[in-house]
Amino acid sequence: MSLFIDFHVLQTVPPSCVNRDDTGSPKTAIYGGAVRARVSSQAWKHAMREEFKKLFEEQDLGVRTKYMTEKITRKVLNLAPDMDFDTVNEDIRKVLETKINNKKWFEFDDKKQTKALFFIGAKQIEAFANLYISGEKDLKKYKSALKSDGLCSVDIALFGRMAASDPTLNYDAASQVAHAISTHAVQNEYDYFTAVDDLQTEDNAGAGHLGTVEFNSSTLYRYATVNATELCDTLGKENVAETVKKFGQAFIRSMPTGKINTFANRTFPDTVYITLRSDQPVNLCGAFEKPVKRSENGYVEASKKALSDYSSDIYTRFTARPDVELSIDSCFGESVEVYPLTELLTELEKAVSAKLDEV
Q1: What is the pTM of this model?
Q2: Tens of pLDDT, residues 246-302
Q3: How many Å apart are CA 76 and CA 70, to the nearest integer?
Q4: Integer Cα distance of 292 and 248 in angstroms
Q5: How many domains in the chain?
Q6: Cα separation of 328 and 273, whole Å?
Q7: Which residue range forms the structural domain that includes residue 10?
Q8: 325-358 burial, b if ≥16 CB within 10 A, otherwise e?
């Protein structure tokens, strides 16, 4: 039996530049033949990982870094303060770049940093450090510390890990996060701004700096899904329901921070719809393939209706209704249980736990 938890969120963002491209413009995408506002999945996952720091213990999380050698070294010195930093740091680096089966597991650059970012969990760091302190010589044990059952951090289990130099260190992601797109067509706008020189003399007219910043505003459709049964393999069945709850909280409440000091664009969602399914994840972005038209009532209510109508159509024509449906809104039909957000997340945890007991 499989268990997938789908999160559907509609969220209105005021004038903002949440996620920029290489030219500084808000990211966009063409969908249904219309230009949409877009926030990349990577930007939102980074925001979620920042939110995770408030929800999980430090020991349950990981870091993505090129400074892995230094990170492990500092853990060694934390556990064994009498050791010398430079000696330990060099020893750890040599272990990490040693060949196993004629292949290096990590490549280092001239600055003695790993050439690629590596996602490593706090428990994996501690296990590696303890092996070093104990004087362990078996390199395979060091390697297993980075992949052993029970040492995987929550964020690695959810978002996965890729080690290009050694695929045996990879973790498959138990979650997927879609690019957020606006339910309607957008047109980017420009803000022309000036900055005044506070010490400028009165006879010197004009601004100290001139510039422009590009922005848009939109009602976004956001989607993420979690494979709960896959999480059981990496985190243990007893930890999955709580993890899904905290994933949901982070997804719903987080916001990427692009230009946030300029626009103060932190908002709550307009609606949240969560489903538990045993067949497959179902992204409902097709509700907005035809862009929602603007009206005197704005975009939110029309977007809610489009999402509700489309989900009912999908459940009628292609698949059964979800096993469990939860929302903060009554617009999704009588079969959907409605709660305020805090209670919604509590009910989600209960529902996931009950479903996993059936597995």
Answers
A1: 0.94
A2: 999 999 999 999 999 999 999 999 999 999 999 999 999 999 999 999 888 899 999
A3: 10
A4: 26
A5: 2
A6: 7
A7: 4-55+175-357
A8: bbbbbeebeeebeeeeeeebbebbbebbbebbee
